[in-house]
Structure to design on (343 residues):
């Protein structure tokens, strides 16, 4: 059983301009790394992304947003906000990125041991009615909503350095989707405080770990072991989806967190260990951010190595300490979560 790697060359045609951090070179760097590690490329099964089912898209996005993006595409491109841009080819890439999760789910149902969707544009900032933060469609949310429509319960873990505001907004009133985000705070887009716990029937089904700048690996693992694992066990997901951003790496130029490539391997290992008990093999990761090309390639390699059981070759010193503020955040989230879960 191999891990599915869902990809499409059309992702490279989403041209954000010469100076934009979310650029095609990101996927090139990852692709080159995988090809350069034969034991890794042999351990994954290449799967083509497919365009998203239009019905699946409007389950999470407004018809107005879908129309707006089609209109900008027809004009050959343009800006959706100050840092969210489309070129010719962006709509096709966005449709494939939003459909990659369905292709991943199909492969896992057919026997694959988890899947990694190597996609762009990223998705987790896109809200119901608006594209933002480099994201056109919310890839992970489209996939989660498709699974929920089929009767599944879905946990979404978001370890991108930025809060997954779009995913949170889309599912904040749902008790079928558990959303957990670990992110730098304050940081773009400004949301994701510990007090944001969901709404109505979804109260308690959103958990946010807003970590201070400089947070290293220890609080992330503590959050996982002391809060996330227990909540997930009680929630009982049929699928675990991950918004796998790599901009929490300490080398990332956009943020100021302190993870290393190995940290992402450890987060992946914990996710897989939980899935082994709760929903074996049903883990699908989606690439979100990560803007230092070498750190991104190292971090994805570390993730895929953990998923496939291949040894990672990434060599780097341990992350620095100084995590007292972040440990207090973990404790605050645990206390708030304890109103809804036995943690
Ligand atoms: Zn990010």
């Amino acid at each position: 059983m191999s891990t599915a790697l869902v990809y499409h060359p059309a992702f490279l045609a989403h041209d954000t301009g010469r100076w934009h951090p979310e650029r095609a070179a990101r996927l090139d760097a990852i692709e080159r790394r995988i090809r350069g590690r034969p034991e890794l490329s042999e351990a994954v099964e290449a799967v083509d992304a497919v365009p998203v089912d239009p019905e699946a898209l409007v389950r999470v996005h407004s018809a107005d947003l879908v129309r707006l993006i089609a209109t900008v595409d027809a004009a050959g491109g343009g800006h959706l906000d100050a840092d969210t841009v489309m070129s010719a080819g962006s709509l096709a890439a966005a449709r494939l990125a939003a459909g990659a999760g369905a292709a991943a789910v199909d492969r896992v149902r057919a026997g694959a041991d988890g899947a990694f969707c190597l996609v762009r544009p990223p998705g987790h900032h896109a809200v119901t009615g608006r594209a933002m933060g480099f994201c056109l469609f919310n890839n992970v949310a489209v996939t989660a909503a498709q699974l929920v429509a089929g009767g599944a319960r879905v946990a979404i873990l978001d370890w991108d350095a930025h809060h997954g505001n779009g995913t949170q907004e889309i599912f904040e009133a749902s008790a079928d989707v558990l959303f957990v985000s670990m992110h730098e705070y304050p940081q773009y887009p400004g949301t994701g405080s510990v007090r944001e716990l969901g709404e109505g029937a979804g109260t308690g089904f959103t958990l946010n770990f807003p970590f201070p700048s400089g947070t290293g690996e220890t609080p992330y693992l503590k959050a996982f072991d002391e809060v996330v694992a227990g909540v997930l066990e009680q929630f009982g997901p049929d699928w675990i989806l991950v918004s796998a951003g790599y901009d929490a790496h300490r080398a990332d130029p956009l943020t100021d967190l302190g993870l290393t490539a190995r940290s992402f391997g450890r987060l992946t290992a914990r996710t897989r260990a939980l899935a082994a008990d709760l929903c074996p093999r049903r883990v699908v990761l989606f690439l979100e951010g990560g803007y230092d090309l070498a750190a991104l390639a190292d971090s994805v390699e570390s993730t895929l190595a953990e998923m496939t059981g291949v040894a990672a070759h990434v060599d780097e010193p341990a992350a620095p300490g100084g995590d007292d503020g972040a440990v207090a955040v973990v404790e605050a989230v645990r206390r708030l979560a304890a109103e809804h879960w036995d943690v």
